[in-house]
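Protein modeling request. Please complete all fields; requests missing the sequence field cannot be processed.
Requester role: graduate student
Desired output: 3D structure, token encoding
Chains: 1
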Amino acid sequence: MISIEGLKVEFGATPLFQDVSFVINKKDRIALVGKNGAGKSTMLKILAGIQHPTEGTVAVQRGVTVGYLPQVMVLSDTRTVMAEAETAFSHIFEMQKNLERMNQELAERTDYESEEYHALIDRFTHENDRFLMMGGTNYKGEIERTLMGLGFSRADFDRPTSEFSGGWRMRIELAKILLGRPDVLLLDEPTNHLDIESIQWLENFLKTSPGAVVLVSHDRAFINNVTNRTIEISCGRIYDYKVPYDEYVVLRKERREQQLRAYENQQKEIKDTEDFIERFRYKATKAVQVQSRIKQLEKIVPIEIDEEDNSSLRLKFPPAVRSGNYPVICENVKKAYGSHVVFHDVDLTIRRGEKVAFVGRNGEGKSTLVKCIMGEIPYEGKLTIGHNVQIGYFAQNQAQLLDESITVFDTIDRVAKGDIRLKIRDILGAFMFGGEASEKKVKVLSGGERSRLAMIRLLLEPVNLLILDEPTNHLDMRSKDVLKEAIREFDGTAIVVSHDREFLDGLVTKVYEFGGGVVKEHIGGIYDFLEKKKMESLDELQLAKSPAAVEDKNKEGATSDNKLSYEARKEQNKKIRRLEKLVADCEEKIGKLEAQVAELEGRMATPEGASDMKLYERHQQLKREIAAIEEEWENASIGLEELKE
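Delivered output (645 residues):
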């Protein structure tokens, strides 16, 4: 679908990457990975046609459409949510106008026997069939499903987009791109503004999407669940792995070990050659051998080793005074803005040393309760902060409180104490402020860079209650690992507001779910909560389908109805899991067969292989096998999509 050949991008003297070639095929779901600054976002812009490379070509197959979601974009605020989403169907409206125009012409003309009249009827019939095939009559339902999947309610549809925050407006842009059903989706950090439920919806959408997907994301669980191929940008080159992210990590480690062995062998070879030259340089009898070794040395191409991942760097919070046994206690806490009740009757107790998560859809009150705990806004009920509690608070607006006149290094140097001062450079490097970046003035930093700097500063302050509101939005995977390990070893109490399942996994032991004005406590980790939540959602779905069952839920008949509904739902889930496995198996088979085809084509391109008819017969056989499995994949994907609707 898209072919990249000999790509080179230069910013200044050093190339960002060079001699990059790869192909994006139909059904590819590619995770584009690499350290910050490696060129991931630049690559997406080049694929989208927004930026041009210094050298090389990007060939997009004729008729292939591309949808691109950047990290940051200029948003329009002149329409309602529904009207803005409808712009994705502008081609449908154009077709509708053409059909209306032809229909009007058919009604007005009287030359029923003429060739022109019959040609007009044929054209109208063809265009009308095309209109129906493209979903011209049910696009509203598709818009509603997509917007609600991304977290909007029906009540939001007629609200102006200007009433929504930047994160929610980005969701509208994402909805428009998804509704356009492009053949290739390019997504740059699509989960940054989504809650857990919306991320799961997007995962399912992308997994069953018939087109190709290329995405950049620091959400490890998301890219693992969505992608089947990983392209790493490292040392200005790319490494293409036909596996999901977790498998790539293992293979990358093996590759680096091989590089190290090859590098060590090469260094030994160079040293031995140099020793030989030095030893026999002035001996006439060895002149020929010496010249030969000198030429041999000149021909050696140095082996490069991938950038080392220093995620093993460990940070430890400075010791703080011991707090009371219960740092936070809420009793019947309520918060309302006029008639709008954010939450009510909140009863929760957080014990010293606990790590808890606040999760739920955006707008359900997670950050509002944090502000109540911080004493920033008034509330009803009783909220007690325990004895000797010292709060360290991180939110995106904390970045605005930094001193703009000093450098990144000085910002951290002023709060670091004791032995940690010796590790300031390492810490800054772990959070993407390595090298010259540490000498930048705060005033020239981007919003994301300021957030990271505020996070580092918080890590070095002596606190015993840590409150982090979406701490991972601007961190790469390495930085997230460093932060997660630091919080895990933190001997105080932590409240983490986050939608990042991978970050929360193994970190929190209790989950507070915000939704519908109430806060529910779930004991266990984030995946325990998600598993339980799916079961709860099934029960709620059954009750919603049977209003009588809600009123008479203690009656035997209602219980029986619910049980039948539950059994039916259980059977449907079995079918979904079976089809998901079939889709995954087909994709794996196709990947293996395509690798065999590529290997054959390489052999066929050689002079010996060009005349080998057996290679051509095997090539045709593999192509037929791929076509058969692709048909099976397509049928399974359609069936899966129908079951999930």
